Amino acid sequence: MASKIIANIRRNLENGADERVSNWLLMSTFWPNIAIIAVYLLLVYKILPEFMQNRKPFNLTRVIRVYNLGQVATCLFLIYWTATSGWVQGDYTLGCQLMDYSSKDPKALSLLQALHWAYFLKLTELIETIFFVLRKKFSQVSALHVYHHTSTLIVAWTSCKYIGGPMPSVHLMMNCFIHVLMYTYYYLSSKGPVWQKRINPWKPWITRAQMIQFTLLLLHLVPPLLPYCKVNKAYAIFTVFYMPNIIFLYYMFYDFYKKAYRREIVLKKIK
Predict the structure, then answer these.
(1) Which segments cross the bilayer (predicted)?
(2) What pTM was computed for the model?
(3) Which positions are annotated as active-site residues?
(4) Looking at the domain assignment, is residue 49 inside a domain?
(5) pLDDT computed for residue 229 by the predictor
(6) Is 5 exposed, middle or buried (0-12, 13-18, 19+ CB in 10 A)?
(7) Are 92 and 166 in contact, with CB atoms under 8 Å apart?
(8) CA 266 to the chain's CA centroid
(9) Quick check: is 4 in a domain?
């Protein structure tokens, strides 16, 4: 029974793959992602920790500042790119929006290209964990951090490969907006204790914004599951697997929020 279900899912995914991306970089097959994630996990859990064991932490402040500013600039650019690929023109809606697999519509193709670049942006985010290890900030290489980066990489690839249209682009714009806030905070924090003190009240709000984002993403995933929304089977499969991932991430972020900030809030009230 299980083998038949797996075979059926595999067949629907193969039939639902977007032919427009078949020859695009790293889009033909999922295997490169498996290799990338395997190398990433080996680096952050074994190779680099062993390399750093008897070494002093690297001073990467300037590199990290450039990285953070690059992330902010890229996210802003992707928001603009996505928004001007049919959204601001009024071509799409936030409800049930069917896929356009045509290569003739320039806005549909532009939207797909934005999702492709979003996948590469997720690849660059893996570098952040390497910075943590090289600076010997091992506590920041948490299960939440690693799972979040690997799962979003898979989601970004799947979105471009199978459902590169208006609905996942909503998630792209929301995620980029949150990352603009997050990497701006990281950049200002890297400027030293004075700035860290100034922006410290922002910190809980970034986690709250993440959780609000997950809630909105879940709500936006409901229409494809309703009978009136005639999405293809690949999209339906993606939605069914994506929703538990978002719920799990929400739980992990909420657990982090309770441990990191709720105690501080209570202590402030007592004082």
Answers:
(1) 24-45, 66-83, 170-188, 209-228, 234-253
(2) 0.91
(3) 148
(4) no
(5) 83
(6) exposed
(7) yes
(8) 31
(9) no
